[in-house]
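Why do we care about 3D structure at all? Because function follows from shape, and shape follows, mostly, from sequence. That is the central idea of this module. The next example makes it concrete: a single protein chain, its amino acid sequence, and then its structure expressed as tokens.
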Amino acid sequence: MITRKKTRQIAVGSVLIGGDAPIAVQSMTNTDTRDVEATVGQIHRLEKAGCEIIRVAVLDQKAALALREIRDHISIPLIADIHFDHRLAIASMEHGAHAIRINPGNIGGREKLAKVVAAAKLHRVAIRVGVNSGSVEKDILARYGHPVPAALVESALRHVTLLEELGFDQIKISIKSSDAMTTVEAYRQLAACCDYPLHLGVTEAGGLIAGTVKSSVALGILLHEGIGDTFRISLTRDPVEEIRVGFELLRALHIRHRGPELISCPTCGRCQIDLFGLAERVEQHIQHMKTTLKIAVMGCVVNGPGEAKEADLGLAGGNGMGILFKKGELYKKVPEEQLFAVFVEELERMEKEHQISS
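And the structure:
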């Protein structure tokens, strides 16, 4: 049982962060925010995948102005990502951002930060203090030599203090490194000395494989230790993949369960079916399902049902024959070319029954 560190609770639009609220899974668009149609389209795909908060880059005033129309066409909270220009932060809040992500140290000094805070109070907007290993102040780096965990923590707390001095406390904090273990230690130190909600992430984590591994290692350790209130899996990939990985991480830790769980065998010399293709088709089909069924895709008709006997519904095949099984017991035999279609039909029937019973 994971005992989660109790943090203050803030609101990002309709989503609560911290306290007893569920750990929220979020992502960031990679579209040009000024292209409203493309950005809204990508957010809709992310919503279907389960994304609960979305962040967009605000590069100029035109992007800030686009936020209102974007927000009016989506159903999840919208965060504006701002660098250097306090005017963009203010414009983003004026045009509908539910929260902003800034580094208070590079927003233009205390006077300009005060204007940002005044706008945040007026529009009831939360602020994420975001510190990365590449954004640590020169004086802090001079003392530590490198962006070590203590340096990241000191930088973040310096910025938080600036906000507190301006009478603002609707804050969440992130301190990210591209090194997984630096990220882990930094968040451990931060969690030990403050109770603001924490946004977890490994910055510049990499592509699908490297990024998934690094993020899962760092975030898995932290979440298992009860640290973290929201997170993003950062991948050089379609952001929908970030959401898929995020919910699989929460499932593996028994923290949250969304949609079916897919188990599949790694294949061996006994496999006589296109298991890779079949597993991919099944995985794509179940992405938008909400029931927590356990689904199995196995390559061996002989051993598959027994190896996946806990599955609510499974399939296996070979030599032109396909089978469906439930809880390890044979349910139906079909020609191999009909296997996927029959499987989907049965899966959808089970989902409807599950929804009715619940």
